[in-house]
Amino acid sequence: MNLPNIKEARKRTDKKVEFLYDKYKIPDSVKDIGKGKKYLILTYGCQMNVHDSENISGIMKELKYTLTDDMEKADVIILNTCAIRENAHNKVMGILGRIKHLKEKNKDIITIIGGCMPQEESVSNTLKEKYKWVDIVLGTHNIYEIPKLLDNVMKEKKQDIEVYSVEGDVIEGLPVKRDSKYKAWVNIQYGCDKFCSYCIVPYTRGKQRSRKHEDILKEVESLRDNGYLEVTLLGQNVNAYGKDLEDNYTLAELLSDTAKTGIKRIRFVTSHPWDFTDEMIDVIAKYDNIMPYIHLPIQSGSDDILKKMNRKYNIKEYKTLFYKLKKKIPNVSITTDIIVGFPNESDEDFEKTIDIYNELKFDLAYTFIYSKREGTPAAKLKDDISLEVKEERLQRLNSIVNKYAKEANMKYLNKVVPDTIESL
Ligand code: SAH
Ligand code: SF4
Ligand code: F3S
After folding, report:
1. Residue 335, preceding bond cis, omega within 30 degrees?
2. Assuming Cys at both sites, which of 74, 94, 251, 346 could form a disulfide with 40, CB separation 3.0 to 4.6 Å?
3. Is 6-162 CATH 3.30.1360.120?
């Protein structure tokens, strides 16, 4: 048993990241355990988690399980969870009740909980104390251990919690069962070192680690050769790609080399406004197969709040970058994330968010009510805005978001544009 520890999760040492190519192995004893059996996987959270679920599915497929979307028919139920806000957490706790009910009828069902939630001390402790019937609990660092954990649980028939609060390594060579035949997620970076004061990700995902560009490009080339039309390069702060490697290879170079593979479309998420270089902008503008789409979370229109959020840019700097992108990249579409109701956000602070939105007119925004995450610096601030006010602010903001989103979409009315259409 290994339980998470927030102090360990916060640590950033200069321990070298290891690139591990042979961590994932299938013990002989479980080679065929899935024959004739079904698994169901429910995924919450960001694209990174969606892609992790594709890796988990890849493992389940190698163990000979087949996928079902009917919980009643599943022999193994996997929840790949997200910890970003309270409501993500609540959804998972809700579904656990349903699974418990099924398990009372059939005790052979195996339940696995993975992803970001078990990385929280409180969650793993609750699972240990109150949800003993959950068979396997793992975190974000040890997906590769699933075969071994299944093997153990089948033999021991008791709960196994293996969650590591470590900075993390780069695990290569996991199998993948992709959801789409044409669009693929490609990790380029794991973890995050930005420590925005409200955010749990640096604790659940470990330190920022970039994959080697050779491995990324090999993956893209193989996807291209297998008929994939689009790749989305994934990371929490893709702009900072490579900063933790020794070869000075940057995201600008990675984008340009990915473009040269000839894959039809390239996207990347998420860009932090902090590390956006002019070289990156030039590369995006230069290659037709790099989509002119940038997700650039602003979070708030108030410098005071940005400071309390530890975002490390102010509105003036954000605007300079925004206008530079608009000027240099033809037809660029820029979207954003905004949090309302951060502790101490005054009416004036919120008006500044509305003002900047009216000025920049984003193509779309993902908007959230601030949610206190235990262990983050913001959790120590008094969450002093009532839910009523938070909801009012969210509604007002969303009506503006929708107005400009419609305007952005109307630009395409009666126009014919290339797209990738996939039937499921
Ligand atoms: N790495 C990305 C964002 C990842 S999380 C970035 O920095 O841009 C996605 C979004 O969730 C964030 O941009 C933020 O708007 C929101 N978010 C994160 N923590 C939150 C919290 N505690 N409460 C509400 N929203 C939060
Ligand atoms: Fe969270 Fe900030 Fe890292 Fe994004 S950059 S994942 S918001 S800590
Ligand atoms: Fe959620 Fe973890 Fe992603 S907290 S948003 S699944 S990194």
Report:
1. no
2. 74
3. no
